[in-house]
Write a structure and sequence with these properties.
Layout: H1 2-126, H2 134-143, H3 153-175
Helix pairs in contact: 1-3
Length: about 180
């Protein structure tokens, strides 16, 4: 009996070992299939990566070419932009000078008009009442019958001021 128990125990251990080996074989076969699938997937990924790497390199080359071309064209535009900047500064200066000139001409015209009015009022007090006197004829010859100067320089100044004002207004409209 002792021997039978011992044999039975050995038989159970042998059967358990056989079951364990069969189970391990199935696990190893499943692991092998998984590794084969993983290897196949890695090969496909590697192939895709190689294709993408080539395409990315091509895109980078084209991008570099475009960047170089754009940089070259921008450098060619630098003198044009500098000229536009200089032109803008010049036009600002011309506008400023025109405004200053216009203001000076207006002030001269006002001063001239004030002087005429002053002379007219002073001259009127000194004129004799008779229109036939030599003094009245001399005054009319010098200043005209309405008191304006015969050379009409006031009219010339007014024309110049009007043209300058028109030019400045036109320039301001263009700038807007």
């Amino acid at each position: 009996m002792d021997l039978e128990l011992w044999q039975w125990a050995l038989l159970i251990v042998a059967v358990a070992f056989a079951v364990l080996v069969i189970f391990l074989i199935k696990v190893l076969q499943a692991g092998t299939k998984t590794l084969e699938n993983t290897a196949q997937t890695l090969k496909e990924v590697q192939k895709t990566m190689d294709e993408l790497t080539y395409e990315v390199k091509q895109v980078v080359r084209h991008t570099n070419d475009i960047a170089l071309d754009a940089n070259h064209k921008l450098k060619q535009l630098d003198p044009v932009m500098e000229s536009v900047k200089n032109l803008g500064q010049l036009l600002n200066e011309v506008t400023l000078v025109s405004q200053q000139y216009s203001h000076r001409m207006i002030e001269k015209a006002k001063h001239h008009r004030e002087n005429k009015e002053k002379q007219k009022s002073e001259g009127a007090a000194l004129l004799p009442t008779s229109n036939d006197s030599a003094t009245v004829r001399s005054y009319k010859a010098t200043y005209g019958s309405d008191g304006r100067t015969a050379d009409a320089s006031g009219a010339g100044v007014q024309k110049i001021v009007k043209w300058v004002d028109t030019g400045v207004s036109f320039w301001q409209k263009i700038r807007r």
